[in-house]
Amino acid sequence: MQLKVIKLGDAKLPDYHYAHDAGLDLYVSDEVRIAPGERVSAPTGVAMAIPEGYVGLIWDKSGHSHKRGLKTMGGVVDSGYRGEVKVGIINLSRQEVVIGKHEAIAQMLIQKVEHVAVVEGALDDTERGEKGFGSN
């Protein structure tokens, strides 16, 4: 499968850092500064054509999340979208975080999508039933 990508300026193309990585690294096209508690849409400077029947799911880079307190938000890129891919990020730390130009900020997994028919009706019984958060 191929992923067609165009640069919308001085951008770095997504890539797999290691041969067996699950996600493509996404890079910021400009320096981004995120104050504590602030949410930003970090520009990647790229647009892409995700093949029909697939979706791009944006996830944290573990180093950014564990070491710097950054969390990605709302990371679904549909196959019909052709605009710039931006990464929603919130800074959960107590200090400003600076992401340098062309630094990897997130990763995107390309995954197959299954569409379902939504049908209203009775639900089958299961062992868990309606037990919610914290149930054992």
Percent helix: under 10%
- Taken together, the total number of domains comes to 1
CATH architecture: Distorted Sandwich
Query: Secondary-structure element order, as H and E?
Result: EEEEEHEEEEE
Question: What percent strand?
Answer: 35-45%
The coarse overall form would be: globular
Q: Over the alpha carbons, how many angstroms does the gyration radius reach?
A: 18 Å
Largest sheet: 4 strands, antiparallel
Superfamily at the CATH H level? Deoxyuridine triphosphatase (dUTPase)
How far apart are the first and last residues' alpha carbons, in Å?
41 Å
Number of strands: 10
- Report strand order across the widest sheet: 1-4-8-6
